[in-house]
């Protein structure tokens, strides 16, 4: 049985872009992150009380986990929580590919347990979910969740874990003003009704919803996110302007309001933090209470933008 319930923070910290650190970063984000800069991010986050770090083996193929493990070394293991993922798409051929991949993550992160271990995508739920059970029993994974699963896959995974006395404790899906498929598919309601935490990823659409990028100042040239988002930036202007104007009333900025929206919808946003001052934005987001009118206006503008931000790895919900 899961002894202690998953303690969920208001906001979690995302490190996919941290895979862009080092000489040969995969440049998905087109960022140039250095361990020294990321140390500052970690120090600022911890000082503000944000201590749940989300990563995955596939982020920069180990680079995100490795740099995260390095910069967290100055802290006691009990002072932060780690969230990382088994990815069926790169499963090995040994007897237990899930346990094997977890060992790689543990080595990269320099730890002997993961607080929240995920199945990254729903390739063969019946095959992979049972492999989480021994990890929960031996304590290498304290809690488990599923990511990018639709409602029937979530229920199947929960049933499989339930037979062993465990459960799907958390869901992690793409959820932003521009991408509300988990809400439309009833996954948010499922989470609310079953006491399951919903972690929302890409709340800022990889920077496209912050108002910082525009046709004049596009996302970094050559990066994957530039290819995905640059052409839609003009359509997002009315929405990012509205985020900024709501922010002004609270002494806050557009991204803070986008994050506050995700909190208001009952989710735990995982925000990709690449610069120390983005932590201030999370503090702001936590202090903003949006009215139902603000939320309705933002969602109407998001719908009017009429863009599809589904990631290439995501299925329709
Ligand atoms: N389970 C999955 O399949 C999955 C998929 C995607 C993401 N995730 C997780 O969710 C996390 C979040 O997603 P994401 O990192 O892809 O995208 P995101 O959180 O939507 O956007 C992150 C980007 O937004 C910009 N940003 C963040 N805070 C800002 C602020 N206060 N002001 C201005 N710009 C700001 C930064 O861009 P610049 O660096 O250009 O400044 C940052 O790289 C990931 O890191 C990962 O942990 C999981």
UniProtKB/TrEMBL annotation:
Residues 11-302 form the NADP-dependent oxidoreductase domain. CDD domains: AKR_unchar (cd19103). Keywords: Oxidoreductase. InterPro entries: AKR, AKR_Detox_Biosynth, NAD(P)_OxRdtase_dom_sf, NADP_OxRdtase_dom. It holds the Pfam family Aldo_ket_red. PANTHER family: NAD(P)-LINKED OXIDOREDUCTASE SUPERFAMILY PROTEIN (PTHR43364:SF4), NADH-SPECIFIC METHYLGLYOXAL REDUCTASE-RELATED (PTHR43364). This is Aldo/keto reductase. It comes from Rhizobium mayense.
